[in-house]
Amino acid sequence: MKIVVLNGSPKGDISVTMQYVAYLKKKFPEHSFETVNVAHEIEKIEKDSVCFAAILDRIRSADLVLWAFPLYYLLVCAQYKRFIELVFERGAQDAFAGKYAASLSTSIHYADMIAHDYIHAVSDDLGMKYLGAYSAEMHDLLDAGERERLVTFAALTFAGVEKMIPVQRETSPLVPPSLAYVPGNGQAAVQPGKKKVVILTDDDGSSNNLTAMVARLTAAFSAKAEVINLHDIDIKGPCLGCCRCAYDNTCVYTDGYVDFYRDRLATADILIFAGAVRDRYLSSKWKQFFDRSFFKGHTPGLGGKQIGFAIAGSLNQIPCLKEALVMWADSGRCTARFVTDEAATSGELDALLDAMAGRLVQGAEVGYTPPHLFYAVGGHKIFRDNIYGGMRFVFQADYRYYREHKMFDFPQSDLKTRLTNAVMMLLTKSKTVREKVYGDSRHHMIAPFAPVLRDD
């Protein structure tokens, strides 16, 4: 069997993900593995049509395409995303159609499901037969049991290809919004007062609806919003995954990204991100923006801000994109609101955009941020444990931030709770005490709230 591995690591062969592929090569010598470093070589692939065509020929000759990648900011890296865009932009779907596919990722299990859902959906859109995902923690390969699990996954996948099993598509084809948006003239402008409003967009003129939505939002804030186009920012390249920023938040690039982020975004009160759907995400330019923000490490860089998303495209048909944006905002301790051009009329979209502008200003004025969802709560625990543990000596800037902001909030450190648990676990060995505790559990659970309801 011929397996073509599309390597999504900017580091090429020198990546953790490729060590997993190397192990599979070792365990399955009867199969042919051919790796294409599409993320590492994306600039050449984009400029050299011969190189791109050669990759397509390799895919056409494959029995299985393995999407192999590390997670970068809730998804694949911008370079990998750009390769997927090129496939659709250049009408190269036929090279993938009918091929079996699977995905392999490495991460610390933060948002790994979003990345695999994305690759699954892309595979469906390419007409591929997707057999499943394997999400490894970065160091799983060092554990004998996890190595066995990996080999079992591969064996089951290869067996599916050899038996030519049928695979059902699980994601529906996207239906683009039908609205050709033309903003109306009537508009009651929102007064942002002293609140700084920034509208960040990747508008390149290819989406008329996106251009019109940005214009409407700009006017909604009494023309006091600053509009920044990502194409105008001095960003010399995508994140390289080098982790040099982990020591003191200093990026290896000496371009204008960090100053732009700190001086123009981090100082805003209200941020609106305006973009158009490309395949099952926003553009690779947007992905580059998110990836490069990793110079802040695993700390909330835009905490407490009001965030609006103005999306041109089928956002409500792409759960992995909606989830990624909600998770990004929630984990960053921000309020997020959404408006898309999936509206029936231009007047309806006018009203939705105007209302979002008003609600963002209201939220900024009272300083409201919602309670955290699972994304922020679960993500904090993953980062907390890793930064305190094995990632500490690399991500020293994160460690200092977490320590300073008392984010190493391990429940095991609460001596009062530990003592209470120890005493109560001992006492409940008595049947009489146990019946009292569990028999009155409903009352015990609400008892602490009585003073608040009585006095506040």
> Might you state the CATH topology name of the largest domain?
Rossmann fold
Number of helices: 17
Task: Indicate the overall shape.
Answer: globular
Give unreliable regions as ranges: none
Average pLDDT for all residues: 95
Query: What is the CATH H-level superfamily of the largest domain?
Result: Flavodoxin domain
Short synopsis of the structure:
Residues 204-314 form the NADPH-dependent FMN reductase-like domain. The chain is of the alpha/beta class and 456 residues long. It contains 17 helices and ten strands.
Account of the 3D structure:
The chain is of the alpha/beta class and 456 residues long. It folds into 4 domains: 2-162, Rossmann fold; 197-366, 3-Layer(aba) Sandwich (Rossmann fold), CATH 3.40.50; 377-404, no CATH class; 412-455, no CATH class. It has 17 helices and 10 strands. The chain has helices at 16-27, 42-47, 49-60, 78-89, 112-125, 144-162, 208-220, 257-265, 284-292, 319-331, 346-366, 374-388, 396-404, 415-427, 431-439, 441-446, 450-455; strands at residues 2-7, 32-36, 64-70, 100-107, 129-137, 197-201, 226-229, 270-276, 306-312, 335-340. The protein has a 5-stranded parallel sheet, with helices on both faces. Strands 7-6-8-9-10 form a 5-stranded parallel sheet, sandwiched between helices. α10 links the parallel β9 and β10. α7 (208-220) packs across α11 and α10 crosses α12 (374-388). The longest helix is centred in the last third of the chain and has 21 residues, at 346-366. The chain is globular.
